[in-house]
Amino acid sequence: METTKSMFLSLLVSFIFISCCYVSSVKAALSFDFYAASCPNAELMIRNTVSRASSNDPSVPGKLLRLVFHDCFVEGCDASLMLQGNNTEQSDPANRSVGGFSVIESAKRLLEIFCPGTVSCADIVALAARDAVEIAGGPRIQIPTGRRDGMVSIASNVRPNIIDTSFTMDEMVKLFSNKGLSLLDLVILSGAHTIGSAHCNTFRSRFQQDSNGTLKLVDQTIDTNYADELMRQCPVTAQPSVTVNNDPETSMLFDNQYYRNLLAHKVLFPSDSVLLSNINTKKMVEDFANDQQLFYVNWGAAFVKLTSVGVKTDEEGEIRRSCTATNV
């Protein structure tokens, strides 16, 4: 066990060394003190906004974490998902269940009072997700800022750029690679499913309705007792608004329970289960299941990479006055 863990850590160090070139090239225009002079309390105001919202609604951290994924994978981390209107990213069915928008808008309104025209919605989205993880019990990390807001938001760009819950390993690896993210990043960022919830239709493919109108398990990669519980929570008659916790054990806590659930075959999505079908990703899952600190350290590095995907800086984009619309 110690030998295999040492080998994994050695590979991890090599990966971080190799991947730093990609990250540093993106960070060149971002910095960890971007608002030090222009809006020194920006991060504190965002953190307090997320904290208050989470106190009122414990589901907020999961919503904000999902929001940053759906934003960054389409057009890069530029808050294009925040834009409202016909045929915008929000109008695609895959984004209709995304939440947390009101928290971002609340933080933006506050920042516009104290630092007008200074802090981008893109940075607020990234920082709010970062804070959501810590508020849910996860690690506190630093991320660079200086992102600018995009001006393009098109519904047709959504589906080719986000993970579907039915994706195979090859499909996920290809999409992550297109975003500059590695196999290790895929396993680590999948750990976001340790918090949050999902609608019944997102994992319905694991079941089939029989002639009597009841559900029957057809996916043999899921624990049968867990499947029975899911069918109880999501019967055929369930309303579209019904949701199930991603993590059946510690649903509101950002920890490494997701990986333990995965090894026990108690995860919601087929795209989670396939992580056990590859010898390399299965080994990573086992290591993170056994060592929460290892997961936390790697989460920080992977999250920085995620929130650096396709960022717009300097003369690209703009600083929106409102996150819901481009400046006129």
UniProtKB/TrEMBL annotation:
Record-listed heme b binding positions: 193
Catalytic residue positions: 70 (proton acceptor)
GO CC terms: extracellular region
Residues of the Plant heme peroxidase family profile domain: 29-327
Family recorded in the similarity comment: Belongs to the peroxidase family. Ascorbate peroxidase subfamily. Belongs to the peroxidase family. Classical plant (class III) peroxidase subfamily.
Purpose of the protein: Removal of H(2)O(2), oxidation of toxic reductants, biosynthesis and degradation of lignin, suberization, auxin catabolism, response to environmental stresses such as wounding, pathogen attack and oxidative stress. These functions might be dependent on each isozyme/isoform in each plant tissue.
Name of this chain's protein: Peroxidase
Source species of the chain: Pisum sativum (Garden pea)
